[in-house]
Amino acid sequence: xxxxxxxxxxxxxxxxxxxxxxxxxxxxxxxxxxxxxxxxxxxxxxxxxxxxxxxxxxxxxxxxxxxxxxxxxxxxxxxxxxxxxxxxxxxxxxxxxxxxxxxxxxxxxxxxxxxxxxxxxxxxxxxxxxxxxxxxxxxxxxxxxxxxxxxxxxxxxxxxxxxxxxxxxxxxxxxxxxxxxxxxxxxxxxxxxxxxxxxxxxxxxxxxxxxxxxxxxxxxxxxxxxxxxxxxxxxxxxxxxxxxxxxxxxxxxxxxxxxxxxxxxxxxxxxxxxxxxxxxxxxxxxxxxxxxxxxxxxxxxxxxxxxxxxxxx
Length: 313
What we know:
The chain is built from 12 helices and 14 strands. Helices cover about 40% and strands about 20% of the residues.
């Protein structure tokens, strides 16, 4: 057990008795990103904002000030950034120099992303293992609470209970209008725990946006989470991602925007540690056989293979 805890902490995460909590990194190494990536994020941020204090830069990158301060001082030493004024508390306002602007424009041409520093993929994988939906075992009271606004025959909950507890794929079928969608949309309410997900992921040098306000609901219970945690992560309710007739094969693959040179996570990745509902099966923009063939391996092996723009799987 001690060895497992030690390994988890070395991966930038920490486990508590009340669940998974992303640990605040104490150094750039613990954050999982390198100095080149951090410099590029600072360059683009200052190019976009003009002048920012060191603490403002750290806040926007969601990193501790002491990590960002060291890099900012290094940029000043190399004459890529300069002090505009002092802000007190051992901090300064920073602005890019002419050479720094050139570096910033080059960084922006590589990727237009500006925002929170990304979380390494291996740390995210560990969080998925620790926050998996199979870690919970909803009981009869949880099911009653989740479906309290529906009128259902008792046998339906008795049938749904074991299926939901399995944490595996569930197929709901029946005549149109008999409540399949209403049931599917409420399954996630059976689970009580809130989870943490990264705002963005770093996968083989590619930044992938994961947090999506359209799919993820931020936790509104501050008492349910720790006082301190890595701000690159977001506490959310277990996600319920629902797709219907608009779904096509591109929805389940990493989407790359050639203009911003930024990747968007597919729908099933956004649904990790929650539920993914394919509504009105058979009415998607693809044949049912194509969709089922795409899901054979993920449903059977619980592993999905995605391809990045650089060709790496």
